[in-house]
């Protein structure tokens, strides 16, 4: 039988697609059906006299409007899925942006009740709203400069003998997801894996590569990569980094603890304190420190932990461990089922007729796998993160200054990299890894 793979890789998307049915002979590709073409991305930004890209980013974002209803939907999905997935007893990194775009590309090819379930989970009313939201958010988050990169790329890899992919779907992915089109021979698994791995590695600065095995029955793979790197607008002094104790769930460990003292706003919520550090591009990274014994409570709060709390201002003494984490997240399908995405995983009831032409040789087309791999590194200079998601288818105040505040991240905490008011990456540091 033939299988079509939808691979979405982000940082932070990888999706392989296929379908059940009997095998059929390979045909020559229809002329003009799939023509190799590269996507046209925004131009590289110019640094200002201070070596910053922030002013260029602000100009572009003021000119690129994303409907607030879509931002709300994106955030609702992000925080709901994060609180279902993250736990306080182990290190993790999750890209809700990666998973959202993966499902969006998948939903663009769905129909009927399958599409309705996916749109409900994604928080939008129809495909037009979804694709318009993804298209404008893509443009808004894109940054390409010498100091900062927030880059998403997409590529539609089509088997050179497959003609079942609908042109309307290829056009939609090209227009709304900025996809480039490539042809490969999936029957040559080693060569195709090398091609896909190189594409992923090239677009994630070598931090990620394709970890799975290529199925020779694959007909289509959509590769979406997401990569983030930026400098703190106010870096930590390396000379202030010292070995200190971190109280992890399984015992105290030594970590490289960064430190700085500065005037800053911060947030105090029910059971947590949160501080946000700004990058050169004006994006931010939030660090959420639960009160002793409150990690599970804070994780269950969802959006409140990442966006809520009372705004305060003080001289802050910040202690933050340097950390680097890689995660493999294999429980995403169960999370999505909890969010009522079910038919897409049902071989007999999944409907993806907007993506492929079903035939007697290819009567079924459904999601058989959802997997994400991520990478994040935080140090004195800034942060770097990458992710891929595989969706496999078979087929201030003027009041008297308060007392200085010490925020010491010496026990498990949460974090999130934010851009344009949406989270790109979020996770937990339960135990800073040894070098």
Topology diagram in text:
Layout: E1 6-8, E2 14-16, H1 54-63, H2 68-85, E3 92-94, H3 96-107, H4 112-122, H5 127-141, E4 143-144, E5 149-159, H6 167-177, E6 179-184, H7 189-202, E7 220-231, E8 242-248, E9 251-269, E10 272-278, E11 284-290, H8 295-301, H9 303-307, E12 310-321, E13 323-329, H10 332-338, E14 366-378, E15 382-394, E16 405-408, E17 413-419, E18 422-429
Parallel strand pairs: 5-6, 12-16
Antiparallel strand pairs: 1-15, 2-7, 3-18, 4-5, 5-7, 7-15, 8-9, 9-10, 9-12, 10-11, 11-17, 13-14, 14-15, 17-18
How would you characterize this protein structure?
The structure is a single chain. With about 425 residues, the protein is an alpha+beta fold. The protein folds into 2 domains: about 5-20 and about 55-230 and about 325-395, Antithrombin, subunit I, domain 2 (Antithrombin, Chain I, domain 2, 2-Layer Sandwich), CATH 3.30.497.10; about 240-325 and about 395-430, Alpha-1-antitrypsin, domain 1 (Roll), CATH 2.30.39. About 25% of the residues lie in helices and about 35% in strands. The protein contains 10 helices and 18 strands. The strands form 2 sheets. Strands 1, 2, 4, 5, 6, 7, 13, 14 and 15 form a 9-stranded mixed β-sheet that branches. Strands 3, 8, 9, 10, 11, 12, 16, 17 and 18 form a 9-stranded mixed β-sheet that branches.
């Amino acid at each position: 039988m033939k299988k079509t793979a939808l691979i979405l890789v982000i940082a932070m998307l990888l999706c392989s697609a296929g379908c059940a049915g009997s095998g059929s002979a390979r045909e020559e590709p229809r002329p003009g059906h799939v023509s190799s073409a590269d996507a046209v991305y925004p131009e590289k930004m110019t640094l200002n006299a201070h070596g910053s890209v922030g002013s260029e980013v602000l100009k572009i974002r003021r000119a690129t409007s994303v409907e607030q209803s879509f931002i709300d939907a994106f955030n609702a999905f992000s925080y709901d899925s994060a609180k279902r997935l993250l736990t306080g007893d182990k290190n993790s990194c999750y890209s809700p942006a990666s998973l959202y775009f993966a499902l969006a590309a998948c939903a663009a090819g769905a129909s009927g009740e399958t599409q309705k379930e996916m749109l409900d989970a994604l928080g939008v009313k129809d495909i037009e709203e979804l694709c318009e939201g993804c298209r404008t958010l893509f443009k808004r988050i894109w940054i390409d400069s010498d100091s900062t990169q927030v880059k998403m790329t997409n590529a539609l890899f089509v088997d050179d003998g497959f003609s079942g992919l609908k042109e309307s779907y290829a056009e939609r992915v090209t227009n709304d997801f900025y996809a480039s089109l490539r042809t490969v021979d999936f029957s040559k698994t080693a060569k195709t894996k090398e091609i896909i791995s190189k594409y992923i590695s090239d677009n994630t600065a070598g931090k990620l590569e394709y970890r799975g095995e290529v199925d020779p029955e694959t007909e289509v793979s959509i590769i979406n990569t997401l990569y983030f790197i930026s400098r703190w607008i106010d870096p930590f002094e390396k000379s202030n980094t010292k070995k200190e104790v971190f109280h992890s769930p399984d015992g105290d460990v030594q970590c490289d603890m960064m430190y700085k003292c500065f005037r800053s706003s911060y947030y105090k919520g029910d059971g947590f304190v949160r501080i946000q550090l700004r990058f050169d591009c004006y994006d931010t990274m939030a660090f959420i420190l639960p009160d002793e014994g409150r990690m599970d409570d804070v994780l269950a709060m969802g959006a409140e932990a990442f966006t809520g709390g009372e705004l305060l201002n003080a001289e802050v003494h910040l202690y933050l461990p340097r950390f680097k984490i890689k995660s493999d997240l294999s429980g995403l399908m169960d999370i999505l089922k909890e969010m009522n995405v079910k038919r897409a995983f049902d071989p007999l009831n999944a409907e993806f007729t907007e993506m492929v032409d079903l035939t007697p040789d290819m009567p079924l087309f459904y999601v058989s796998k959802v997997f994400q791999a991520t990478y994040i590194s935080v140090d004195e200079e800034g942060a770097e993160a990458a992710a891929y998601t595989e969706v496999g288818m078979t087929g201030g105040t003027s009041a008297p200054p308060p007392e200085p505040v010490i925020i010491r991240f010496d026990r498990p905490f949460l974090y999130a990299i934010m851009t344009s008011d949406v989270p790109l990456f979020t996770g937990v540091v339960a135990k800073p890894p040894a070098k």
